[in-house]
User: Fold these one by one.
Assistant:
Number 1:
Amino acid sequence: MTTPADVIVSRWLAERHLPPSASIRHVHKAAEALIKARNPFAALDLLDSASKRHAADLRIEQLAALALANVGSYEAARQRLERARQSYPNSPASEQEETLALLGRVYKSLALGSRGREGESFARLSLKAYEQASTMKGGFYPFINAAAMAELCGDKRAALEFASKALTSAKRARRRARDLDSRYWLEATIGEATLLLGKEEDAQRAYAAAVALLGAGARHAKVTMVVATRRNARLIASVRGLSPRWIDETLRVPRVAICCGHMIDMPDRAVTRFPVEAEHVVLSELREWIRGQHVGIGYASAACGTDTLFHEALQDEGGESHVVLPFGREQFQLTSVFRTERDRWPQRFRKVLERASDVVEATEERFDDTLSLFEHANRLITGYAMLTALELEDSPLAVAVWNGERGDGPHGTADIIRAWQRCGIEPKVIRTDAIATSLKLPKRRGKRPPQLRRAPVASPSETELRTCAIIFGDIEGFSRLSDLQSFQVQRWYSSTVAAVLDSVATKPLVRESRGDGFYVVYESITEGGRQAIAISEAIASSTPPTFSEGKAPRLRLSLHAGPLFRLYDAILQRETWSGPSASLGARIEAVSLPSTVYCSREFAALYKEAGDGELSCEYVGRFTLPKNSGVKSLYRVRRATAKTLQ
């Protein structure tokens, strides 16, 4: 049954329009639904629109702070919550508890993202907020968080006191809990409280009960709940000097895996590589490996042979199967699926895509014999798996079906394995040559086909293709400035950006400026990320003329990565790099929060695959992009910091 909140959500996502009849209570419910669906930007926009129509409301402030915290804007969330505390000093105890608990969470996040004394200071502010929240209504949530923060701050007596109260409160609330999420968090709270009280066996039983509620094959969103529980348990164990082994075994999450390997041999293939007779053995070994390694999430392409077998095995085990194609599925079938008129690979390909959790077409480009798109998709597969594993606080596994020899061309199985090894991923290799020998199959040792190469580039300005990092930036509120202010701001920000770009040896492929916006392209994914952060920091640390400190316009900045073509721009009378990926980068910048760098999932994946650890890309949610550009997963980019209290 459709509720008024559902109507608000659908209208807002489709039209960015708040129905005139929408009550503030229904707006609250709609914003909560958007946040739960990991669409915090839409929630922020909705709440901002509602605040202009309705009277001042504490719940709007709380939900806005929650959405800001979910996108990693902890300082903005803190400021909003502190203002809410001052503006609503006489609100009911339950509302004050909510505000203080959110404030405690924000300070905890700031503590875990800081070092040394600053981290310790934030940790004590978090403890203070949770302590104050616990005095309101005595709910289990502030009690257990106060206990954990007291433990991390070294206050053992307070930790035991709050843990005891959390245990009592959670057991009382357990009798009233109905929905799955509430029941899970109550059992997890009981586990954490008993762990803090030094009762490891009781804690293990409670944690096991929480995991059992989710059932086998829990979807990714539910698995992240277990990850959060395990993270807290590990922190407590490290402070107590306990072994985390039983914690990891009890709060086990599915492993993430990537797969690559040979396609099934064509009937007339001169050299045996993956004979059709070996298919059932490879499928059996893949199934055994998936079960033995507890793989529940997998990434691969969907070519006939290895890729399809991996997806079939994982899907049959109830796992999440993620397919990444280098280009459109119809063209992909012609290049990588169809074998003979009578084979069943096309039907199996379509069934794999139907059962997959998602299917990503890395580009919209048609196959043009450059092989660049295959390389791009291979890198995305690895990067996506690394991002998912990172979210689960793990590292990805890998399996390859290979005959141990070089491929017929670049970007084949041997090259992918070497790329994995450069990322620190050592794969399990299923050797098709050994399987063929065990089955006593005849070996075809004809002349190896000539190694495929990139098509000759007759006109680089028309056909050259590279995967690049794309930076877009503009100034918030530029159109509202006076003529003099716009002149001063444009001169200030353009000279600041230029100074950053000129300060490093690696020069961008493109650097262009239009009005209050700029467009920069780097061939190096890592260099693009570093320069985006450097630009953001340089703008944030300076102020244009005639603006007082804190009143200067702020920069919106986005990062994307994808294939771009080199072309000659007849209007500018120079070469540039452009393509659909550049347009998508501009759409991401349009929804970015000021003074923050956001990136696409593609950039985050390729940055992770590149192996650079200077920056972190933290998932913040899914966002509807302007100009019918669809819904994209976005990440916040910032300098990496230690996630420990030191």
Number 2:
Amino acid sequence: MKKLAITIFFDTFTLMLLGLIIVMSASSTYSVLRFDSVFHLFSSHLFKVGAGFTFMILLSFIPYEIYKSISKPAIISISLILIITLFIAPNIKGASRWLDLGIISIQPSDIARLLLLIHLAFLIEEKHYMLDNFRQGFLPMFIWVILISSLIIIQPNISTGMLLVLVSFSVMYVGGIKFRHLFYSLSAFAAAGFVVAMIFSHSRDRIISFLNSVINGGDINLQVKQALYSLGSGGIIGVGVGNSMQSNLFLPEAYGDFIFAILGEELGFIGVVFVLFGYLILLFAGILIAKKAKDRFGQLLAFGITISIVTNAFVNIAVTTGLLPTTGLPLRILFAGGGTGGHLFPAIAVAEQIKDMKPEAEILFVGTSSKIEGKVVPKLGYKFKSIWIKGFSRQFRLENFLFPLKLFVSVVQSLIINMRFKPSVAIGSGGYVSGPAIFGASIMGAKVILLEQNSFPGITTRLLERFADEVHISFEDTKKYLKRKSISRLTGNPVRRNLGTENKDKALETFGLKPPVKTLLILGGSLGAKSINDATAKNITGLENIGIQIIWQTGELYFNQYRDMNSEKIKVYKFIEDMNAAYSACDLLLARAGATTIAEILALGIPSVLVPSPNVAENHQYYNAKSLADKNAVVLMEDNKLNEMMVNIVNETITSDEKLAGLIKNASALAKPEAAEIIARNAVNYMEST
């Protein structure tokens, strides 16, 4: 017995030490980005391992017979704690599992698993003479198993509850319970478990996705796919500790549930075999200790603990390698923002990336039904909830007196939406609507990511900053206006995924124009910009005299006023549907300095003259354009100088190939085409690790 105990001790210590090394390697990148410390997650894990190791040593000096006397009160107490947990535990990722004890947080379900095994061993020993009897032998044990596992399942923690049933029935079978009693009850429970799993959308989606990948050869879960990439790239001896590529945010939960994949990548086939061999040693040594225990209680307790540890380990490995469907909680993310396309479309770009990374993720947009988000979001297939909020007008209007009431109602609506949806992460992309919605999500414990598209942050961003975990900015200048500079990330403004350029001659043909004449593209937004349209009309002869051709989007409000100016070299449009063709056709762009326009011209390297609108909140368009003009990435022309300077600035820019080339080079250098992917990956990591 002593040799077996020593074997288990050193086997456990070796696996624990190896785990610490791989956790340190797998968590370093995420720790730096999330906590500004390479060792943050490792330190937390080391503390827990140290505490566990200390308890293991202390408990080894306690005779296991003592657990018999505390079996009944312990199982009753943990049942009550599990019930209380459902009501008082914070909702994290849609589940109530954790109890915060100040220094440490615990999952009562982990304690419940051990106490249930202790109680089953006690009952089997106590009722050994009536184990064949269904009512007096099997039923009391079955009730405790169903009670504890059900309390765990409804947290929800379906996989843990189902595994607990499997391990408990294994102990009962070894203890002498009739096979037919176990078989019938397990079959009924499995059927009920399947029904429950299909009721919860997150588990249903995972099961269907898994079956589709197995039966029909469909796509496998992205997380599993990345895990297999990780395992496959390890080869025989691995890439070496600290050299994993997948741990650099490619594999969500790399330092947690999918740590086995990183182990395989860094230590290779040899490392995987070593770990599997370590668990097999633990299995055989545990069973041998169970056989040599002096009483039935000790035998069943040793067997149950051994089977529980090894089963959980091998189920984790099976999930990592795609042999079993992934488990976990619903990945729910809430987006709030709108009022204008500049606030909405960056959020949509991030949502599309998240759907690519996590097809099973549940996405909800919150906005106002009367604005652009109320029309666009439902058409894209995303869930949409409307709240009453509306911005405070800078002009005197009677509706401004309703603002406090609308704000209060919107906060209440947002709290209700968040309580029902239970998001893990909330992304605010600006506009008044994001205020109540993101505040509500923060109150409910969601991680908060803010997107600030403008050089000077809007009032909503400045108010929500205190609740945020990250603020993604598009301009370096923005950081100086934020109070919490440490959470800012210069990521760029997300752009739509289908943004791109095409053959210039083909693009010109789309608009009825011909090369090699240089082309000026004039934009004023979907509704139009009065001052730009007026200046264009007033200077149209001067622009024609430069020897250029013009694509002119007047906007819906002004099209009828200028449609008659359409000619062979001047193409007037109410709205341009194919912006990729418009960008590809032009040699120079003249437009407002909205955040979305800027993100697109930087991504495509479009030479631009930006005319900031003087009618926007906090003059943010001027700061946008000024920030770029200071880096010679655009030409800045103020709105009040349009009439007198338009022809000269266009002429000086579009006729100078050297100046155009400089603008292209400098604009492209500031581009952040990966912004949507980076933000989406951070959001997914929050969802996976919360």
Number 3:
Amino acid sequence: MWLGFGTPCRAQAQSLEPPPVELDRAPPPPRVPGDDDDLPLTPPSWVNDPPDAEAADRGSAWGDVDAPRTLRRDPAPLPTVGEPLEGNTVSGAVGVLRVLSASTAPAGRLRLQFTGEFSSAHSMIVRRDQNTRLAGTLAGAYALRRGIELYGAFLSSSNKNRRLCSGGVCESEPDRVDPEVIRAFGDLVVGAKFARSPQPGWSVAAYTSLKFFSSTEGVFFDLGATSLTLGGAATWDMSRSSVSAKGRVPLRFHGNLGYYVDRSTNLQDFSGASQSSQLVASYAYGMGRSRLQAALAVETLGMPLGRNAQIAPFAEYHFGWVTGRANEAFADFAEPLCSSLGRPCQDNRDQQAVSFGARATFASSWSATGAVDLGFRSVGFPYGPPQAPYSFALQIGRAFDLGSGGFLVTQTPAMASIAPTEDEPVDTGVVTGRIVGPEGTPVSLAVIAVQGLARAKVASDPDGSFTSHELEPGVVDLLVTAEGFLPQSVRARVKAGMATEVQVSLEPAVNSTVRGRVVDATGKGLAARVHFSGTADVAVATDSAGAFEAPLPPGVYVARAVAEGFLTKEQRLSLETETEVDFTLRPRREVAAASYTPADGLNVRLPLSFDAQAGGLPVVLSARSYQTLDEVVDILVTQPRIRTLVIETHWDVSAGRADPKAITEQQAHAIGDYLQAQGIAADRLQLAPMGASAPLVPNVGPGRVKNRRVVLKALEG
């Protein structure tokens, strides 16, 4: 696979007027070390979590508006949902898997990662051969400042090629000179990337790298084989560009175009070696010919994966065109891509491959990437060895912010101006303003976040005023949150060297009240706890009569009632005003009718039954089945690993003119309706009316009634 290099762009949101005010050209106040808008002040914890003692401690740091604020943050904080997930290419530069993005990590950030790759193929290089390759790469990248990045990688691999294999027995040809196992240890890649963003959502970069090959005969690099890469990259982040101003499009596209001056053929003298030995050794050592390289990649923004993790799928396409001269020694080579029926040997100059994978970030600074490479077209033998038809890659990485001096961030509250220097013109602006409540009263400790920039949050001072971090020019969306108030969004247009003023009025949050009772089948109140999860997470206990009451902000919730010795139930509710919700719980049986284990799946011991409706067809769910189905509800509520419950209903052919398919359809709907009434979401239920199409016994004689049955299947995933 031909490598590329790259970095994710920071997602930037959009915003509007009021008009900007030019700032005085005074010296700038103390700044956070590192990238300008990637090291924020830490907001009060109630932005994302319920208030606690630690949050109160952090909030108290805002007390003196004239003193510098010293706050502690976690190393390399995880991006919020809906942002690019930062990672490295295999060869070190920040990017996707092998494609660079046209930007760099925040200044002072060091990223290290290890990548393992595996491939195995039959008849890939030589007919009837078995080739297995295992490679490992230790790589890293360091951002000297915004837009300048250094990267490097240390590569090692082991390649095993067995020839003339048949029935598990392999024999080498008589003139073979290459060893069965070839190890390449110590190849080194060093490079640099220079990136710039001409406008929001777009960025371009130039990159260059040198590859030093470890000598096949000595103990140092073979300098005569040193190879050079020169190229450019472009990135289009649709979540930040103007075309998505009315709604974020969670996609980023990357393109790379470069030229690789390949001198690796100087590594080995193949005089007297067979064509097969030359190809196998060239593949093992990574030898090839100079070529033009192009690549495209698309990736999504981060999607939630559990509480503290996110995942972003991606896809890459790679194209190469060999410009070097063909090796005449392979003009008549006919293994293994050439037919014995006279088809000429493949001699094309192009090579193509695709990659599919996903990157996950977790535990604040760790990342993991898994991918599969599919090589669907290789160069002809005169232009180099073929690529593996498939390979697997697994990467583990971690980020370290070295620019903040041990992750301690100190910043003065207000930024009075943005002053240019002789070396660097002003290319950023700020948003300033005031947060007020009813009747213009100031709101302190309100958190102002720039949507799309995870670490660009500031808090309002006691008089409600705030000044954002420096931002790139363009339209941005600000999200203002404060305890006791409804969130408020506002747009502002950032201009270079200017301060855009906004004023945000917050509305007080008004809680609604949800009331209800938890009772048994006789109406007797139960001692229970009711858990509400959704817009807010709240748990309340019932009183002696089974009654409960909970003040909640408006929103969508899942309410779960739990009582010792009783089956658990859930209900979904949309809370806008006062709402009542009641639970009727059934006691657990000593011997349950339904049970579940991950190993054995769902087991329903007692059959479900139906009563005949007015027309005589048995399609009405019998009350005798309620207890069993309530036990199924309890399993679905307490086993979130079960994603889907398949409801299969079966019948025989004894219903006269009635259609068995119609009977089972009504039975499946009756079961599904009951489960939904008990709080099970419709998207977790799959109805499968089978009619008489899947009998257990022949549909003749009295024994055919055995075909009347309900089968419940729990699907995980």
Number 4:
Amino acid sequence: MKHPNILYFFKDRENCNPFSIFNFQFSILSPMKKLLIYITTALTLMSCNDFLDTESLDNLPADKPYSSPEEVFGGLTSVYQMLADQGTYGYSLWNNFECGTDLLAINRSYTLTGLRIYIFNNSDADLAKTWIALYKGIGNANYFLDQMIVTDSTACGGHRAKEAYIGEAKALRAIYYLNLISIWGDVPFRTEASYNLNNTQMPRTPQADILEQLVLDLQYAAEKCYSYKELMSPGRISQTAAQALLARTYMYLCGYPNNQDKWQEMYNAAQAVETSGIHRLNQNGYEDVFIKLCSDKYDMAYNENILEVEFYGNNMGGYMMAGNLGASIGIQQTSTTAKGDSLGYAYAFLDGTKRLNELYGGRTSTDVRRNWNIATYIYTNDLKAYHTKEDGNAAKWRREYETVFPKGKNNTPNNFPLVRYAEVLLMLAEASHELGNGQALGYLNQVRERSRATTFSEGELSDSQLKQEIRDERARELCYECLRRADLRRWGKNVYFETIRSLRGYYTSENPQGRAAYNIADKHLYYPIPEVETSVNKAITQNPGW
């Protein structure tokens, strides 16, 4: 079956074809990237009258069906689009919320306030940006799902397509809610489109109740979405992506503060991904996973990246679809010579910590992830300048592998791995350990062996040691991928605070990399509900300590 893509949208606008400037590179992009480019282009070309003619947001049509596959797919893409927003995976989720854990730290001495070092309040602009972006994604999903109720299957391209698109929207909404819960805990649970901006009053829903609904939504998606083989792209929600997200949702239900016994369900969902036979660890090496993310290539041999957040270009030429991976987080390179431009400018504000270095076994470890995730050099005068520090730039995304030229100073095309098969294996390891089914060590060793880390033999680890190794392996494998804060918290309040504060053993309070560890307080278990919400939603309560 041919799935909808941007090619359906190639239509002249008043005898002017905006796509005539596209080169061959555009024709080989993924359908989702193509569609996002189309939407950006369409918005750019809209005249003032186009905007003036648009219906007011407080009076959106509640029962206007989509009339064609193009309209349906365009509506679905608006739900995907918020994954790449600056408030989500485009910048803030990793820069402001993953940073400040025990693995990732700011390295600038002038950083004296902000989310990354726990000196902020509920009026913080970055805090509001992420709240707004996540709820905008949810709002777009709710509106799309509402419209699909009154949209005939023929307008979707058939009944199968309609069910698949609904599944994708439900899974995307789940991603946005999983992030909200990870940062704020209990939040307003909005599952219906709002056609009146005055309908803002909504209390918080316990996160366990939200997660249980997300289970139902992801079960639907796992059944109704297209398979990964049908899509042949990690840029959209497939059945196995939904199953992996379902396993992650069960994992959160198992942990603090929910503490439900859902280990078997978590195992079953993750095992469904394993037994599909579609996904494997990239045997070209750990590094190759991220080289491909930076060089705009899909791994079609192993399909390790089950779901990616897609970025495109350099924000030149009117297509505002670039991200920031490799620039703010990457290896420092500030030369503006021709060679420097070819390497790509990188501020490199963030470091992998000394604690992460220790988890790998230090600089001399055989584990290739150590020197890939913690750089052993920076660029000086266009050349690599090696250092002997135990920490270093968080180097998972490297601009030297980018294929888009010219390379923008602040904008990069590098994708973000939202779900990887390595995480699936580690969820299987964790669930297996809790279930006592004897499979945990095998799953753990699969991940370690790929990275040339020492594997463990049967009986080498005690039960408590195996449990800790599985937890530590998530840090080694998945660092910087916006999972660490939720991991630490679900393992318990004490684990959360003690692990972040453990950086005090590696840094003084004067070191920028140590400031988060010295500043974190009990109220930072969850972040404050932003003022942009509390000022209009009088039904909402604030998190403790704020």
